[in-house]
C-alpha cells in the first residue's frame, strides 16, 4: 500500500513538473498570444473613487475574471510599496492570467497611490472599508457581461480581505496567496521578536496588547513609529479583531492556498493551518518561492533584494497552480 501511495505521489509530481515546464515555455515563447485589452477601470464607492487596471483577453464568450487584492500598507495595484520597493509581482501575475484567457482587475486600495484621495488620512482606514470596497468591485464585475466566474485572489493581508469579502458577493472561488492563518498581531509579535532588542520588544508587546484590546497608545518610540505610529493605530485595531483562519473556514466555495517555502513574512505553518480550517481547500506549497512570488534562496540579503527587482521572473509553478485551479472550476 505504501509503495502504491509513493508511486502515485511520484506520478502526481511528474505531471505537475510537466505542467510547470509547459507554462515556462508558454511564457518564454509567447505561445497563445491572446489579444489583450489593457485599460484603466474605476469604481465609485460613494465615499471616494478607486482606480485600477483591467486586463481583458479578446473572446467571443465571457471569460473568468480574477479580482486581485494587494497586501498590507501602501502596496499598490502592481504589488509595489514605496517603503518596500518595486517588484511588479501582481502586475506580472495579471499578465500570466491574461495570456491564458483569464481577465483580471487589480486596484489601488483607498488611501494608496491613485486611490489616495478616497481616504487621504490613514486614521480613517479600516479592514471593514477594504472589505466593502472589494465587495463593490465584485458586484461591478459580476454585472459585466464580458466576464464569467469571479475569483477573488488576495496576496498577504489581501488574502484576509478576500476571505471576508467573498461570501457576500457569491464569488466562484477564493485564492489565498501567502495569507496568514493567525491574527496579525501574533504574526507581528513573531516577526519583531527576531529583530528587536529586548527593551524595544517589551514596548512593542505592550503596544500590541493595547491595540488588541481596542485602545490606542501615543507613546511610541521613534524606532517603532513605522509600525505603530498613532495615525495607523485605528487601522491596526480593526485588523487585530480579525481571525484569518476562522474567516477562511466559513468559505463555502472552492479555495486554493498557495504558500512559498522561502517566504520570510508568512510561513508554511500558516498555509497548513488554513488547510486545517477548510479541509476541502487545495494546498500548493511551492519550494523556494518567497513573499513576492520569486524563487530566491533563504538568504536575507537576496530575499530583500528580490523585493526591489521587477525583472526577476515569477515562480513558474505559481502560474501553473493558479491556472489549473481556475480551469477546474469549469467542471464544478
Question: What's the structural blueprint in terms of helices and strands?
Answer:
Layout: H1 2-29, E1 36-44, E2 49-57, E3 63-69, H2 89-98, E4 103-107, H3 127-142, E5 147-155, H4 157-165, E6 173-177, H5 184-193, H6 198-212, H7 225-228, H8 233-240, H9 244-249, E7 255-260, H10 268-277, E8 282-286, H11 300-306, H12 316-328
Parallel strand pairs: 3-4, 3-5, 5-6, 6-7, 7-8
Antiparallel strand pairs: 1-2, 2-4
Helix pairs in contact: 1-12, 3-4, 5-6
Strand content: 15-25%
Q: Which CATH class of the largest domain applies here?
A: Alpha Beta
* CATH topology tier name of the largest domain: Rossmann fold
> Main β-sheet, in a few words?
8 strands, mixed
Rounded to the nearest angstrom, the distance between the terminal CA atoms is 31 Å
Number of strands: 8
Order of helices and strands: HEEEHEHEHEHHHHHEHEHH
- CATH architecture term of the largest domain: 3-Layer(aba) Sandwich
Helix fraction, binned, reads 40-55%
| Cα-atom radius of gyration | 20 Å
Look at the structure and name the CATH superfamily of the largest domain.
Alpha/Beta hydrolase fold, catalytic domain
Question: How many domain modules?
Answer: 2
In DSSP terms (H or I, runs of 4 or more residues), the helix count works out at 12
Look at the structure and give the mean pLDDT: 91
Using the alpha-carbon principal axes, give the shape: globular
What structural category do the secondary elements indicate? alpha/beta
Please tell me about this protein's structure.
There is one protein chain. The chain is of the alpha/beta class. The protein folds into two domains: 1-31; 35-183 and 242-331, Alpha/Beta hydrolase fold, catalytic domain (Rossmann fold, 3-Layer(aba) Sandwich). The chain contains twelve helices and eight strands. It has an eight-stranded mixed beta sheet with strand order 1-2-4-3-5-6-7-8, sandwiched between helices. Strand 1 and strand 2 (49-57) form a beta hairpin. The chain is globular and about 60 Å long.
Amino acid at each position: 500500500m505504501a509503495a502504491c501511495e509513493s508511486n502515485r505521489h511520484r506520478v502526481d509530481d511528474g505531471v505537475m513538473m510537466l505542467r510547470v515546464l509547459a507554462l515556462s515555455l508558454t511564457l518564454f515563447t509567447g505561445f497563445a498570444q491572446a489579444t489583450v485589452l489593457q485599460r484603466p477601470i474605476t469604481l465609485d464607492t460613494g465615499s471616494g473613487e478607486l482606480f485600477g487596471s483591467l486586463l481583458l483577453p479578446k473572446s467571443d464568450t465571457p471569460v473568468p475574471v480574477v479580482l486581485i487584492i494587494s497586501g498590507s500598507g501602501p502596496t499598490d495595484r502592481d504589488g509595489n510599496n514605496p517603503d518596500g520597493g518595486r517588484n511588479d509581482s501582481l502586475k506580472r501575475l495579471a499578465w500570466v492570467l491574461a495570456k491564458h484567457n483569464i481577465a483580471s482587475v487589480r486596484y489601488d486600495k483607498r488611501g494608496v497611490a491613485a486611490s489616495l484621495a478616497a481616504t487621504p488620512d490613514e486614521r480613517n482606514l479600516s479592514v471593514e472599508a477594504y472589505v466593502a470596497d472589494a465587495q463593490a468591485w465584485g458586484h461591478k464585475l459580476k454585472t459585466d457581461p464580458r466576464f464569467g466566474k469571479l475569483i477573488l485572489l488576495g496576496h498577504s493581508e489581501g488574502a484576509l480581505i478576500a476571505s471576508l469579502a467573498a461570501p457576500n458577493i457569491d464569488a466562484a472561488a477564493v485564492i489565498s496567496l501567502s495569507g496568514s492563518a493567525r491574527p496579525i498581531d501574533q504574526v507581528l509579535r513573531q516577526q519583531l521578536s527576531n529583530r528587536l532588542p529586548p527593551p524595544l520588544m517589551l514596548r512593542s508587546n505592550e503596544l500590541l496588547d493595547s491595540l488588541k484590546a481596542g485602545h490606542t497608545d501615543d507613546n511610541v518610540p521613534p524606532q517603532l513609529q513605522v509600525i505603530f505610529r498613532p495615525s495607523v493605530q485605528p487601522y491596526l485595531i480593526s485588523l487585530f479583531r480579525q481571525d484569518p483562519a476562522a474567516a477562511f473556514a466559513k468559505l463555502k466555495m472552492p479555495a486554493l492556498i498557495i504558500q512559498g517555502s522561502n517566504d520570510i513574512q508568512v510561513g508554511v505553518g500558516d498555509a497548513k493551518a488554513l488547510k486545517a480550517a477548510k479541509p476541502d481547500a487545495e494546498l500548493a506549497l511551492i519550494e523556494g518561492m518567497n513573499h513576492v512570488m520569486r524563487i530566491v534562496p533563504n538568504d536575507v540579503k537576496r530575499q530583500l533584494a528580490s523585493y526591489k527587482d521587477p525583472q526577476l521572473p515569477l515562480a513558474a509553478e505559481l502560474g501553473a497552480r493558479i491556472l489549473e485551479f481556475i480551469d477546474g472550476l469549469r467542471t464544478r
